[in-house]
Amino acid sequence: MPVRTIVRVLAAAAFLTAVPCRSAAQTIPSAYRFVDTRQEAGVFAGSSAAAKGRFGFGPAGGPVFGARWGIDLSGPLGFETVASVISGTRDIVNPAIVVGDRKIGEGDATIATLDARLRLTLTGDRTWHGLSPFFVAGGGLAMDFSGSAALDEELESDDRFEFGRSFFGTTGGGVRYFLTERFAIRGDAIFSLWKIDTPPGFTDPERGFTSVEESEWTSAFHLTLAAVIRF
Fold first, then answer.
1. What are phi and psi of 14, to 5 degrees?
2. What is the gyration radius of the CA atoms in the chain, in angstroms?
3. For the chain, domain boundaries
4. Nearest alpha carbon to residue 176 among 221, 226, 136
5. What pLDDT, on a 0 to 100 scale, did the predictor assign at position 28?
6. What is the pLDDT of residue 9?
7. Which of 164, 173, 186, 215 could anchor a disulfide with 135, C-beta 3.0 to 4.6 Å?
8. CA–CA gap between residue 173 and residue 155 (Å, rounded)
9. Mean pLDDT calculated for residue range 158-164
10. For residues 105 and 160, what is the distance between their CA atoms, to the nearest angstrom?
């Protein structure tokens, strides 16, 4: 092979080596992004609907608002605490009425809850197109801060319902959407349970009540939307 041809082949090879291959330099953007922060805090608002129990004197739910703090523990597992207030109403029921509707009016039912939850994030410490879906489960305490209503005074003491305090169990899920690395919006759909005690007047067989439990578990469903900051 002539020397001139060899020189041309080597020069062409050197040129091709020096020019980066455009196809090799291309990368496919990933739908996943790592979340570098571990803690989050936020405030939320929404609505709550609750079962009122067999005789209808339990809290019915209403607007709910509160605050939340959470921390990522390891991988997909996290921990959070939630404090909320449900501002609603309850029916005042008179068990002494034998025929017809026993409801004589309504009273306020301001239920405050405080609970701790474990959070399982389906995408772990990453987001998918900015989304981070999760499940939560936990428990805590529910308390009534509304006190007695004026109509309660018309009832005998054994006929008056009082919510008092109750265990508050929660389970559900939701999703966070990261607007930036530090700010997100979050939606939660939560099922909960609490126990309501039956006033003694609702267990009196002379009034026609039979097979009445001293207390019963009632469920509630909460939908909330939160503004979240990560740090």
1. -65, -40
2. 30
3. 36-230
4. 226
5. 72
6. 47
7. 173
8. 41
9. 94
10. 13
Place of tokens 């953007």: 29
Q: Which helix (H) or strand (E) holds 14?
A: helix 3-18
Output the pTM of the full model.
0.82
Contacts of 110 (CB under 8 A, 6+ apart): 85, 86, 87, 88, 144, 145, 146
Specify the amino acid at residue 230. Answer: R
- Tokens 């959407």 sit on residue: 177
d(CA 93, CA 179): 48
Task: Specify whether domain 36-230 bears CATH 2.40.160.20.
Answer: yes
In this model, does residue 228 exceed pLDDT 90? yes
- Selection from 175, 213, 176 nearest residue 195 by Cα: 213
DSSP string, 20-46: PPHHHH--PPPSEEE----EEEEEEEE
Strands 61-74 and 131-144: unpaired
